[in-house]
Design a protein that fits this description.
CATH topology of one domain: Ribosomal Protein L30, Chain: A
Helix content: 40-55%
Strand content: 15-25%
Oligomer: single chain
Shape: elongated
CATH class of one domain: Alpha Beta
Number of strands: 3
Structural class: alpha+beta
Radius of gyration: 25 Å
Length: 111
């Protein structure tokens, strides 16, 4: 058996590595007001799911109460989706209509 010396000395193929890391899509988590869910329940959900201080949760709950809805925060998609599901599940298990939704962030300045 002989070795083909012409083909055995090929230069190694150059591999180009891209260092660009794409940002994940971000979403606003929006809290909607209802006239049934107790204020204390809303605050407890914001504290437990979003790790807010009670004072901050109270400000947001009041904002949603007076304007109909308010932004709770801006998160990468997976985190926003998880937090919305946790909060909505907690409300559902306690028979409250409390609801959070997600809205796509279209402007980079919003993040």
């Amino acid at each position: 058996m002989s070795i083909d010396k012409k083909n055995s000395k090929k230069p190694a193929k150059e591999i180009k590595i891209k260092n660009k890391v794409e940002e994940p899509p971000f979403y606003k988590v929006v809290m909607h007001n209802d006239n049934v869910t107790p204020f204390d329940f809303v605050i407890s959900v914001l504290v437990s799911v979003f790790s807010m201080k009670p004072e901050q949760a109270t400000v947001l709950a009041m904002a949603a109460h007076t304007t109909g809805k308010c932004e709770v925060g801006i998160f990468p998609f997976v985190i926003a989706e998880t937090k919305v599901a946790m909060a909505n599940d907690t409300a559902s298990k306690n028979s409250f209509p409390f609801k959070l939704t997600m809205e796509s962030v279209t402007q980079p300045s919003e993040v």
